[in-house]
Amino acid sequence: MNVEILVNGKKVNADIPASLLLSEFLRETLDLTGTHVGCDTSQCGACVVHIDGVSFKSCTLLTVAVDGKSVTSIEGLARTAGADLHPMQEAFHLNHGLQCGFCTPGMIMSAVDFARQTANPTEGDVRHWLEGNICRCTGYQNIVAAVLAGAAAMQIKAGG
Question: If both were cysteines, with which of 20, 22, 109, 122 could 61 make a disulfide (CB 3.0 to 4.6 Å apart)?
Fold first, then answer.
């Protein structure tokens, strides 16, 4: 099947098998290695991308489902903020919101969508949201701090 997808601001045309997962297409075909594949559960969240601005787990979507849509991976996130790093990426860096890094791209992508939907989130809001994203290294404290800081930075940047 032929698909045309806007990936991180670039038009991509590809002839792909109908059964190709979006996570595999991004990582294996386009070499966007921030999107992970091969996790043992679709619950880990390490493969989250934005499709037309909304976060989705790319390991649960076929590539053909995003034909004609805009996909942003962690590699293209900073471009959406017009900066070297998106405010959420900067917050994860400053708050040490990562350890091994496997879950970090998905956590950040999902956190951006969460912050857009949740004005002034509380620690409880963040912890509830984190239930769908698995980190096997941390106790989540620094991730929670990073999401709160990133959400605040996004609010400031948006003028709120």
Answer: 22
Query: Distance between CA atoms of 65 and 97, rounded to whole angstroms?
Result: 32
The full set of domains in the chain, from first to last, is 2-74 (3.10.20.30), 78-157 (1.10.150.120)
Tell me the angle at which helices 141-157 and 87-94 cross, rounded to the nearest 10 degrees.
Answer: 140
21 three-class SS: strand
Per-residue DSSP letters for 38-78? --S-TTS-TTEEEETTEEEEGGGSBGGGGTTSEEE-HHHHH
**pLDDT value at 81 more than 70:** yes
DSSP string, 87-154: HHHHHHHHTT--SSSSSHHHHHHHHHHHHHHSSS--HHHHHHHHTTS--SS--SHHHHHHHHHHHHHH
Give per-residue pLDDT as tens, 35-62.
766 555 555 667 889 999 998 989 889 9
How far from the centroid of its chain's Cα atoms is residue 7's Cα? Answer: 13
